[in-house]
Amino acid sequence: MSDTRAAQPIWVFGECLVDDFGDAKRLGGAPFNVACHLWALGETARFISRVGRDAPAAEIRGLLRRWPGAAAWLQEDAQLPTGRILVQRLGTGMHRFEILPHQAYDAIDADEELRVRALETSYLLYHGSLALREEGPSRATWRFLASRAWGRFVDINLRDGCWQRPWLAELLQGADTLKCNDEELGVLQREFGLGRGDAEAILPALAQRFGVAEIVLTCGPQGAMHWDGATLTRSHALSISVVDTVGAGDAFSAGWLYARRLGATVAKALQVAHGLAARVCALEGALPEDPQSFYPAFVAELGVAAKGAVRA
């Protein structure tokens, strides 16, 4: 990534919600988690989402007060509730998710201010797929933002009932970076007839099919891979004691973006991404309760330079 583009903001688009474990509730949503990690590491990011007029929305706004201006583009919906996902613990840190329909994040609007800023600003667009599950306001806003961005980091999240093949193809087409896990790669392989074989064979076929510049594949404890059209790079996961895997993939994405914008090589960026994901797996929940100690320790351990002070 060039120095000029590394200095340009990341616009993070998508859901913020509550993960409801029954006995506990935690704030989440992949774009929300990624934005919080990036802010804490000193990155310039804009978070574009929508919440209801309810207690979870107030809690989300309260957390975002850690960073000046973080809630500036957080929209409010008078009818739809703040997003909620019912989470069932399965043991060994794994979970089953029930994603509720028709939530505020399905109705993210491209208002006049957002349109003007998109026309005036050069930005990298980070987005997932969950907030785009319905043919409605969020998908229309995404199409507009994607058409104005200089690049797209696509972090898919293929939950049952929350995606359809035609728009998934639209989502993938021309992505600068696609990040997915090994299970999601299997879904893409089947849905788009990418042939047989292991990841080494499927990644080039996927990249060629949709014109994707690079793919980052996470494989849990087996590590990760990166394909850029010419070179396959492998990385080993860190050996850790897992408390909770919720948010690990989001931390990986944030670590990758952060390292690459600092000019790190692919190998180093994978190491940094694994490092942040591992630290999050040692937490209860996707975000640290004490960011003032969490992020400086991460930066020091991985040998990368922080861009700014971490705010409480």
Automatic annotation (TrEMBL):
<protein>
    <submittedName>
        <fullName>Fructokinase</fullName>
        <ecNumber>2.7.1.4</ecNumber>
    </submittedName>
</protein>
<dbReference type="InterPro" id="IPR029056">
    <property type="entry name" value="Ribokinase-like"/>
</dbReference>
<dbReference type="Pfam" id="PF00294">
    <property type="entry name" value="PfkB"/>
</dbReference>
<dbReference type="InterPro" id="IPR011611">
    <property type="entry name" value="PfkB_dom"/>
</dbReference>
<keyword id="KW-0808">Transferase</keyword>
<dbReference type="InterPro" id="IPR002173">
    <property type="entry name" value="Carboh/pur_kinase_PfkB_CS"/>
</dbReference>
<dbReference type="InterPro" id="IPR050306">
    <property type="entry name" value="PfkB_Carbo_kinase"/>
</dbReference>
<keyword id="KW-0418">Kinase</keyword>
<comment type="similarity">
    <text>Belongs to the carbohydrate kinase PfkB family.</text>
</comment>
<feature type="domain" description="Carbohydrate kinase PfkB">
    <location>
        <begin position="25"/>
        <end position="286"/>
    </location>
</feature>
<dbReference type="GO" id="GO:0008865">
    <property type="term" value="F:fructokinase activity"/>
</dbReference>
